[in-house]
Write a structure and sequence with these properties.
Order of helices and strands: EEEHEEHEHEHHHEEEEEHEHEEE
Shape: globular
Number of domains: 1
Number of helices: 8
CATH topology: Metallo-beta-lactamase, Chain A
Strand order of the largest sheet: 1-2-4-5-6-7-8
CATH superfamily: Ribonuclease Z/Hydroxyacylglutathione hydrolase-like
CATH class: Alpha Beta
Largest sheet: 7 strands, mixed
CATH architecture: 4-Layer Sandwich
Radius of gyration: 18 Å
Length: 277
């Protein structure tokens, strides 16, 4: 497998990081850190494009089944849009996807579920989503209470739900597919969800949006982003998960962890850091 598609073999299951591309995020959207420190951290980490946020999806293959975790942005707002072509390089057509598991409903995670004509990209896929996340988006009182920007996110999610309405399965914590376990990671959104993948020879955690700027938010876990629905809870969840994956040496995959897709995390004298693998 080429380095373009980082692959983790867990015995009877494989997990491949598949890029959808990038989006740009201004440091002004981060709290509890100033922009000059952000630039310094990115420089120290040899990040050339300081404000580029990579968009990963993950392809889980087991016993002839193809499961996709998130769908990228699909070109919405000019973000990403490379997923389908990258899947094709792996020999996977949209019709081959049996299920799509969603970490949450922000545009850079669900935009790839529909094409520019508004039709379903993965017509045979079951769509699995946290019951809390789905019900929050479908509630009209919630819709009326949010900003115009977030209203747009609601409308996009609702339009996607309609296209997959006969294939949606609402999930809670626990095993949702053979060897795939849903783990609530609330804070970034009400129903933000991670997925633990268990194979016959290892396991890993897909942690969704625990971080957007990994080097900044691992070094300073209290740094939140404007997209967090509950910044304090998001930070608390981040610290809790960082403590678990670092102390138990659990391999993680992140939607915004960078092109390497996967990493181990270590606790350092100040904050946490990525372990090269």
């Amino acid at each position: 497998m080429s380095e373009k598609f980082p692959l983790k073999n867990l015995g009877d299951v494989s997990v491949t990081a598949v890029s959808d591309g990038y989006l740009q995020v201004d440091f002004g959207l981060l709290a509890n850190v100033d922009e000059s420190e952000c630039r310094q951290i990115q420089d120290n980490a040899c990040i050339r494009e300081h404000n580029a946020v990579h968009i990963n999806t993950f392809l889980v293959r087991r016993k002839g089944k193809n499961i996709l975790i998130d769908s990228g942005a699909g070109g919405i707002k000019g973000w990403g849009g490379n997923l389908v072509n990258n899947l094709a390089e792996l020999g996977i057509k949209p019709d081959d996807i049996d299920a799509v598991l969603l970490t949450h409903t922000h545009p850079d995670h669900i935009g790839g579920l529909i094409n520019s004509q508004g039709e379903a990209v993965f017509p045979f896929a079951e769509l699995l989503i946290s019951a809390d996340e789905f019900n929050y988006i479908e509630d009209d009182e919630n819709f009326e209470s949010v900003s115009d920007r977030v209203k747009g996110n609601f409308l996009l999610a609702r339009s996607i739900f309609k296209k997959y309405q006969n294939k949606i399965r609402l999930i809670n914590e626990g095993e949702i597919l053979p060897g795939v376990f849903s783990i609530p990671l609330k804070g970034h959104t009400l129903g933000h969800t991670g997925y633990r993948i268990e194979g016959s020879n290892g396991n890993l955690l897909i942690w969704g949006d625990i971080v957007h700027f990994p080097h900044i938010q691992l070094l300073k876990p209290d740094v939140s982003i404007a997209f967090d629905s509950d910044p304090q809870l998001a930070a608390e969840t981040r610290v809790r998960i960082l403590d678990i994956v670092s102390s138990d040496r659990i391999l993680v995959g992140g939607m915004h962890l960078g092109e390497q897709g996967f990493s181990y995390i270590e606790k350092r004298q100040s904050g946490y850091g990525i372990v090269d693998i």
